Amino acid sequence: MEIDNLVVRYGEKAAVDGLSLTVTGGTVTSVLGPNGAGKTTTVESCEGFRRPESGRVRVLGLDPIADHDELMPRIGVMLQEGGAWSGVRALEMLRYVASLHTHPLDIPALAERLDLGTCGRTPYRRLSGGQKQRLSFALAIVGRPEIAFLDEPTTGLDPHGRREIWQLIRDLRDDGVTVVLTTHAMDEAEQLSDQVHVVSAGKVIASGTPDTLTEHGTKSLEDVYLALTAPPRREHK
Ligand SMILES: Nc1ncnc2c1ncn2[C@@H]1O[C@H](COP(=O)(O)OP(=O)(O)OP(=O)(O)O)[C@@H](O)[C@H]1O
């Protein structure tokens, strides 16, 4: 996947402002950055949900806007607050999305791994925040995508859910799936990523493996991140 000098505006405001990065196939890439830095907008541009003002995006060699219909069946998308019809039951939704794909994952096995069995008959609006999150992750991967875009995949999950999703992400990579995730959890980025990009004000300000960014583990990724994204100091008179 390649993003070259991407600019996306909402009205006057450039949410993404000349962002470039490359993602190698079969790796896990984390995009980190402060709230409002432009991570979600970047990922949505790769999914074809945002039209760039300028720049070039290619996902699996395709243009996410012009080739949207060809691209969509090949990617998995987990949106922040993805949502679903309020009355749909969790397993119904999973079965429906699976039915749109040629070779979906085994639903009972996936539901069990994500602990969706007990809430499988619960309408979406009555699921807890963490259950919605688990369902949303399952929906993103059930179609065996070639690239999975995961926007804050473990936010709000209990520690068991977090670890299960981490393991599922590792399993995806072992199966050759490319994973692009955004996260505010530095331990998650450090544990899972082959490559990390730090975004601030719509641009990539640092990139590297967790090992290079942390200078071979002599610093924590959180300290590196905090130093890179520190707001300018205010002058006190
Ligand atoms: N639909 C929208 N309309 C107008 N402005 C938007 C819209 N979506 C995002 N923005 C603005 O664009 C900027 C980038 O937002 P974006 O959601 O891409 O950031 P983010 O890095 O994903 O943030 P967070 O970590 O809080 O999820 C922010 O200033 C945000 O207010």
From TrEMBL:
<keyword id="KW-0472">Membrane</keyword>
<dbReference type="InterPro" id="IPR050763">
    <property type="entry name" value="ABC_transporter_ATP-binding"/>
</dbReference>
<dbReference type="InterPro" id="IPR017871">
    <property type="entry name" value="ABC_transporter-like_CS"/>
</dbReference>
<dbReference type="InterPro" id="IPR027417">
    <property type="entry name" value="P-loop_NTPase"/>
</dbReference>
<dbReference type="GO" id="GO:0005524">
    <property type="term" value="F:ATP binding"/>
</dbReference>
<dbReference type="InterPro" id="IPR003439">
    <property type="entry name" value="ABC_transporter-like_ATP-bd"/>
</dbReference>
<keyword id="KW-0813">Transport</keyword>
<keyword id="KW-0046">Antibiotic resistance</keyword>
<dbReference type="GO" id="GO:0005886">
    <property type="term" value="C:plasma membrane"/>
</dbReference>
<keyword id="KW-1003">Cell membrane</keyword>
<keyword id="KW-0547">Nucleotide-binding</keyword>
<dbReference type="GO" id="GO:0016887">
    <property type="term" value="F:ATP hydrolysis activity"/>
</dbReference>
<keyword id="KW-0067">ATP-binding</keyword>
<feature type="domain" description="ABC transporter">
    <location>
        <begin position="1"/>
        <end position="226"/>
    </location>
</feature>
<dbReference type="GO" id="GO:0046677">
    <property type="term" value="P:response to antibiotic"/>
</dbReference>
<dbReference type="InterPro" id="IPR003593">
    <property type="entry name" value="AAA+_ATPase"/>
</dbReference>
<protein>
    <submittedName>
        <fullName>ABC-2 type transport system ATP-binding protein</fullName>
    </submittedName>
</protein>
<dbReference type="Pfam" id="PF00005">
    <property type="entry name" value="ABC_tran"/>
</dbReference>
<keyword id="KW-1278">Translocase</keyword>
